[in-house]
Amino acid sequence: MFDQARGRNQMKLIADPVIRRGCDLWLERVIAFYGEDGGVDVEVIDDEVILNEQSVDYLYSEFTPTEIPYVPGSRVMLEQVVAENVRKDMSDRQKALSLMRRVRDNRDEGLASPGLFRGGSEEELLKRGALMCNEVARIYACLCQIAGMPARLHCSHISGHMMNEVCIEGKWGWVDSMKGIAPVDDDGAPASAWQLLQDPTLFERQPKEVWDDVRPPGVTFGSDERDTRNVNFHMLRNRYCYFHPREAMALGNYFVWEMHRYTFPWIIDPVDPDLLERSKRNAMLNRRELGWPDFYFNPLLVDQELSWQQTK
Fold it and tell me: Which of 177, 186, 239, 312 has its CA 20 to 30 A from that of 41?
């Protein structure tokens, strides 16, 4: 299903021309950075489908298989990471959170500066200390699958961020594995990307344990990553940007047992820096036209949005 509207044709499911242009500009930025032969971080696009009213039933049923045909011993290093962070007595939710924290903190584990290289296999990303959202999302999907939990990629193309969904006891839950955010619904169950898109105010109602896991990448305000203002800023980006009603969202499959399908080159410099800069500028103008909030363009304006705070 949706064979003619996936991968680089996924824009066919978008009717709004401004949203579609935002999706086109996302693809242009990816190709400008990685190149047409840019390896896994380009190749994963082939298995993406836009998440909207047309596709939601398919994406939350047959799109991602729940059976995991991983053969133990195939990727020993990843198995070791899972073993270090997952115990048999943990619930699936606890396993998913433990692996999320390991991936969130991967920036502390690397042997080299994460800003020098891009790309590589999940094993290489763990050694390097990967921080890029698409890289940590790949790691998280693979670790969850080895731990026995179906997992996949979730993308907000216009904002420019890759995240995850993981299936816990038959229910998909959205996870930002780079920032350590795994929200729940009002009943305490994992909240899916679709639930959050329908009601992004869920981000305002998260319990203390969800807030406590948030670790923003870098410091926007003050001197501490976990300063309340920094944490609120990133939760606001979820609320008003990544789950903006005019965002172009997609779900994509990426399986740890299909390493043979992908190539894993190292990327140092953008393939086409001039095109990348033009695409970034045009993407900003497009976000402005779509109604992205002022603080997306200037974080110093975030205080006008802080009608809710991390107070729990």
Answer: 239
Q: Where does the pLDDT of residue 254 fall: very low under 50, low under 70, confident under 90, or very high at 90 and above? A: very high
Indicate the pLDDT class of residue 170, thresholds 50, 70 and 90. very high
Residue with tokens 């978008």: 14
Task: Tell me if residue 252 falls in helix, strand or coil.
Answer: strand
- For residue 251, list its beta bridge partners: 49, 154
Query: How far is it, in rounded angstroms, from Cα 66 to Cα 63?
Result: 9
Domain edges within the chain:
37-258
**CA–CA distances in Å: residue 94 to residues 68, 90, 128, 270, 274:** 19, 6, 26, 38, 45
For residue 308, what pLDDT is reported? 53
Report d(CA 73, CA 76) in Å as an integer: 5
Structure tokens at 297: 């363009």
State the Cα–Cα distance between residues 12 and 86, nearest whole angstrom: 41
Tokens of 43: 């190749």
- Angle, CA of 22, 23 and 26, to the nearest 5°: 90
Which residues have C-beta within 8 Å of that of residue 165, sequence separation ≥ 6?
Answer: 151, 152, 154, 172, 173, 174, 175, 192, 193, 251
Would you give the end-to-end CA distance of the chain in angstroms? 44
Record the tokens describing residue 187, joined without a space: 């009943």
The fold of 37-258 is: C8orf32 fold (3.10.620)
